């Protein structure tokens, strides 16, 4: 059947997308991108400052989505001057959302120590406000599109177009946030850049609909004011970040960077160098030797003559430094998730001096991988180690808790020589007594014989460790020369647990329930 020429011409005209339509659909993409950035930035900042990334991200995202629902519901009451209302919302969400990471960082440093409740109130108040504003955006864009192009779109087509661009914007930011934005811009500058994008959408709408808007000059001044404030904040973001981190850490910042996995800060003061990961102290140079000697030597010396050693975690190279004190060692494999850690501790002169250039030793092979996944991949290779040193951060979230589970220890056991030992850093048996003994129960469930012990590390307090293996541990009579803390005679003291650290009966930590993470949070969050 032939189609009349005028009908074909009309269809061709309808198929062409107008500049206004392109503008509005592009704004949907940017709106979605900006909204997700504010959500992710709030979750990341909360995890840095409050700990437990799983809990913080879950609650922030939940509160944000709830607020978006409120915003969508409130949009029904916006009936007049849709474009002006949309423009105002864009400026407000750009200003509040863009400044939110900087504001939260500053507030956390100005609030008195222990004022977590006040900080959480501010955090969730801002999350709810930004979420509600973002929830208003998409319904208003849909109504503007419907009004402008009612002849072109049926409702189903309009919803399809808008949601497609909305989800594409979210996908783009979900990929860019951890891979590009945070590593290269940091949280504060990322928020400000995307705040400027929101303001840019407002300017775009002002220009596009200038013919139908009232008070164009006033709206233009508002756009200029918001953009000016955000640019001013962006220009001072480096100094703001340095000021906030100096106040937070209390020492001069020697190095600060954000990797794909964590915020790495190295400070230096009169007492020496300190390393912080996501705001948590990992070591202090004045007493780290106590921790690392206690971690490494009870297992290494008890083995007798270890040749092959596996170190899981410990990208600072300090545990490797202690391992290399044994002449019998031929090969050390260090598995560290974050390549930025090992790069820093093998190139920065002050840090290289601290770990005695351990990461540069020809005996050391560095692997950048998730320890759980990497060990599973070694099953077919039949790799076996005489000693395995496990130096992971505490089980403060589920991604770390899996590394303290029966499933993980079973995999480690498969790669342990018959006469070998593994040793695990196991949090404080004084502060987190039940957590400590949960790890012991977990190792014993796998079928290993355990030897729990503890040492006083002034920067941390009483700290716990557990040696485990298929044969009983016997106290070594000889240790490497030059140790500053550990002695053969002092080993017996480390094994004594007074009543306030004595064993409690605990269930093992399994991958399916990760009870250790909840227990750890309860104990470290309780007043002591």
The stretches of 5 or more residues where confidence is low (pLDDT under 50) are 1-15
Strand tally: 11
Outline, from the CA principal axes?
A: elongated
> Distance between termini?
85 Å
Give a quick account of the main beta sheet: strands, pairing sense, barrel closure. 7 strands, mixed
Instruction: Report the mean per-residue pLDDT as an integer.
Output: 87
| Broad structural category | alpha/beta
User: What's the helix count?
Assistant: 18
What does this molecule look like?
There is one protein chain. It contains 18 helices and eleven strands. The chain has helices at residues 5-15, 19-50, 53-74, 82-110, 116-148, 155-208, 216-235, 237-249, 288-303, 318-323, 339-347, 349-354, 371-377, 398-401, 406-414, 433-445, 491-494, 515-525, and strands at residues 252-258, 263-269, 272-277, 280-284, 308-313, 331-336, 364-368, 385-391, 416-425, 449-457, 461-469. The protein has a seven-stranded mixed sheet, with helices on both faces. A four-stranded antiparallel sheet has the order 1-2-3-4. The longest helix has 54 residues, at 155-208. Mean pLDDT is 87; it is low at 1-15. Catalyzes the irreversible transfer of a propylamine group from the amino donor S-adenosylmethioninamine (decarboxy-AdoMet) to putrescine (1,4-diaminobutane) to yield spermidine.
């Amino acid at each position: 059947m032939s189609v009349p020429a005028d009908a074909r011409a009309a269809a061709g005209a309808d198929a062409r997308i107008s500049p206004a339509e392109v503008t509005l659909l592009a704004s949907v993409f940017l709106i979605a991108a900006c909204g997700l950035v504010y959500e992710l930035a709030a979750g990341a900042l909360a995890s840095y400052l409050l700990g437990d990334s799983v809990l913080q991200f879950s609650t922030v995202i939940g509160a944000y989505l709830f607020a978006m629902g409120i915003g969508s519901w409130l949009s029904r009451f916006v009936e007049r001057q849709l474009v002006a209302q949309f423009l105002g919302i864009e400026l407000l969400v750009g200003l509040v959302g863009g400044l939110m990471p900087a504001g939260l960082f500053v507030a956390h440093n100005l609030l008195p120590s222990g004022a977590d409740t006040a900080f959480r109130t501010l955090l969730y108040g801002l999350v709810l406000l930004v979420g509600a504003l973002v929830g208003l955006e998409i319904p208003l864009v849909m109504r503007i599109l419907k009004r402008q192009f009612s002849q072109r779109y049926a409702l189903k087509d309009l919803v399809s177009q808008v949601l497609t661009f909305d989800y594409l914007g979210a996908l783009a930011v979900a990929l860019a946030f951890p891979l590009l934005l945070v590593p290269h811009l940091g949280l504060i500058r990322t928020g400000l850049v995307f705040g400027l994008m929101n303001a840019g959408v407002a300017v775009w709408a002002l220009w596009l609909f200038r013919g139908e808007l009232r008070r164009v000059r006033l709206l233009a001044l508002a756009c200029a004011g918001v953009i000016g404030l955000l640019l001013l904040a962006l220009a001072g973001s480096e100094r703001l970040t340095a000021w906030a981190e100096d106040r937070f850490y209390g020492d001069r910042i020697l190095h600060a960077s954000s990797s794909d996995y964590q915020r790495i800060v190295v400070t230096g003061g009169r007492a020496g160098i300190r390393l912080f990961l996501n705001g948590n102290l990992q070591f202090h140079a004045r007493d780290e030797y106590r921790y690392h000697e206690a971690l490494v030597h009870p297992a290494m010396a008890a083995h007798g003559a270890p040749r092959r050693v596996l170190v899981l975690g410990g990208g600072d190279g300090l545990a490797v430094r202690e391992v290399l004190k044994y002449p019998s060692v031929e090969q050390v494999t260090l598995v560290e998730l974050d390549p930025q850690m090992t790069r820093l501790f093998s190139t920065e002169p002050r840090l290289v001096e601290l770990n005695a250039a351990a990461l540069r030793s020809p005996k050391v092979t560095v692997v950048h991988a998730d320890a759980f996944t990497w060990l599973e991949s070694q099953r077919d290779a039949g790799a076996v180690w005489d000693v395995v040193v496990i130096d992971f951060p505490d089980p403060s979230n589920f991604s770390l808790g899996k590394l303290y589970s029966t499933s993980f220890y079973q995999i480690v056991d498969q790669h342990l020589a018959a006469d070998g030992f593994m040793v695990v850093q196991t949090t404080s048996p004084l502060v987190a007594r039940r957590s400590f003994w949960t790890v012991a129960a977990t190792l014993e469930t796998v079928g290993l014989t355990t030897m729990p012990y503890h040492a006083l590390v002034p920067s941390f307090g009483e700290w716990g460790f557990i040696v485990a293996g298929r044969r009983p541990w016997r106290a070594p009579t000889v240790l490497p020369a030059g140790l500053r803390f550990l002695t053969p005679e002092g080993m017996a003291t480390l094994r004594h647990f007074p009543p306030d650290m004595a064993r409690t009966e605990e269930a093992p930590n399994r991958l399916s329930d990760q009870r250790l993470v909840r227990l750890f949070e309860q104990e470290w969050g309780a007043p002591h």
